[in-house]
């Protein structure tokens, strides 16, 4: 552990030095950080020699997801998306449940050793998508607005939606394994969701009040204005956990509340820069730790069944539900293929996996479940990273050659 932090800092500085040159190429930041972490990890150089159950790993993952959840939720403007809400609504309202159902069925068939709650838990863990793994797909202005916004909004919201589902299914799996009683499981889920929502609303209202009131009175220094969303995310998380609530639900609800109140007061969105940049930095470190701490040991437990499920999860389990969710909208084949393929698994899945590691021995087939999740993430980092830029450019060219009203280019709205 002595040289872990200096090594991570050197990796971050090194990537910063080439970041502009690799932007838009198949060499993405998650690929670089994951591979570097693997080379520095416990199974290789041993520089980042931290166990997956170490408190610092859990803290890093949880803070990262809390920041990302708050930021994603705060940026959601349903009024602005009203004219383009059809696609993300279908992907989230129809595609997400079907993806979980398909993942559950595939796990029961391919990974027959898993008990049914464990198979369902694996499906939920692998359901949320992470647009950062294929960033070109949501940053190229030449891509059709409907497609780009749909994938961006889906990625921003499905991890928040999957958090309560994860807590519920994890409690069911623990109760089925005899780790906790049924009554304790129901009480645990109720408290985590309830206290999480309360803490999130309070944190969001408090942060928006400070930003709006102090801003109107010219009492808020612009530098400190940038710290308000970061502080609000941390407040939501740290207030929910001692109460017995979910810090992730609190962060997501806090972001929704903060963003809605800020927009209602017509406050400039510049205050959101710092939380975006902080979330990106923590995400980079999380991928390094993922490669070093989780991926190395998982590769040692790799089997054909695990690899097969990972491939199925990234293809059939994602692509068929997406196609079914768009029935009636008459999408063309390239659009279906593009939307179906770009469902990368990333940060939320990493955090869910670490949360399960924190409770060792409570699930009968925990190692198989975790190995499958980690291998799926690693395969997604590589496959979606390598294909994002070339396939986005190819699809954009096809959309220009086959114009439809929904295929108009999207303005660059991401920071």
From TrEMBL:
Domain of life according to the entry: Bacteria
Family matches, as Gene3D superfamilies: 1.20.1530.20
Pfam family, any one: Na_H_Exchanger
Compartments in which it is found: Cell membrane
Topology with respect to the bilayer: Multi-pass membrane protein
UniProt keyword Protein biosynthesis, yes or no: no
Source species: Rhodococcus opacus
Keywords from the UniProt entry: Antiport, Cell membrane, Ion transport, Membrane, Transmembrane, Transmembrane helix, Transport
Protein name: Cation:proton antiporter
Residue ranges of domain Cation/H+ exchanger transmembrane in the record: 12-392
Transmembrane spans: 91-112, 119-143, 193-214, 234-261, 281-300, 306-324, 336-357, 369-393
Single GO BP term: proton transmembrane transport
